[in-house]
Amino acid sequence: MVSDSSYFYLAHGYTADYKHTFTPPASVSSFLGYSGPRDQTGVLCIILCFALGLANIFSKFIGWGIGAIVMSFILVFIEIPLLLRICPTSSTFDAFIRRFTTNWMRAVVYVAFSAVNWLTLIIGGSTLLVPAVFLLIAAAFYGLAGLKSQEFVGSKTLGGAGVAQMIV
Fold it and tell me: Over 70: is that where the pLDDT of 23 sits?
């Protein structure tokens, strides 16, 4: 017998096996690429680093504020690979950004950026601790994906998964 919740899943294209475990249709899984939380946290880190870095330029944390803004621009190119095709950048910068195409390398860069923001505690607490926490959370997501040996799949929303090839 099929329950009411089963009808919902089956009506929306999910398939069920004999154990009643549901798998999403191929179009949903390829669109999301199962990297949704990692990508979303990465975009949130970009926004937080830029906004709070800009806010901290006008305080005693001017160096860390500028550093957070630089981090946000680096993260933009890491998280949105389509920008490497659109923006005129040097081949050295492109090679540097292309190093971060695996979950492990992204976890390393997020931990490094988080550690830099945690160093604001040397002078005193600031709002740059907020991006430090979220950078650490993003690093944990990428690190867990690396531990599970998941292939990195960029979402089509952020310009990954072959979107750059479709444009050219």
Answer: no
